[in-house]
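Quick one:
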Amino acid sequence: MNKIIVYRKTEEYRGLVSEVAHGVIEFRKKEGMLRIEWKYWLAETITSHPAYKKNSEGNQEFILNLSKDVNMELKKEEARLGRATVYNLLEVYQKYPDYEKAIKEIIEKGLNPYRWGSFLALIGRSQDSTEIESGKKCPKCGYEW
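Output:
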């Protein structure tokens, strides 16, 4: 026990703790940014695709079917793409298509630009909310949730 206390107080050990902590923070930031960039890419891909432009307006099941069909394509070993995720990213993208503008506003509001919840907060959703709110309607397809 005495040996543990001794090395924990050394500059060498404190340096290791600091280096690992900084590495974790940097990784989390990069991971968060990649996830957000991916969501923007996904929203842009969906909204600019001819199939979306042609079939989504007035079609409440378009996003539901898209989500289901993507998940079937991904198979079980891949990440799932939920309907709520698609609606959330489309709503954020429609209100904030300029990624840099969204980041600037998030920072101005004192929110964390590395968390998707901050982007949801920009559109009036709770930062901690993982559920989609009821009473919303997709402006493109009319789907109500």
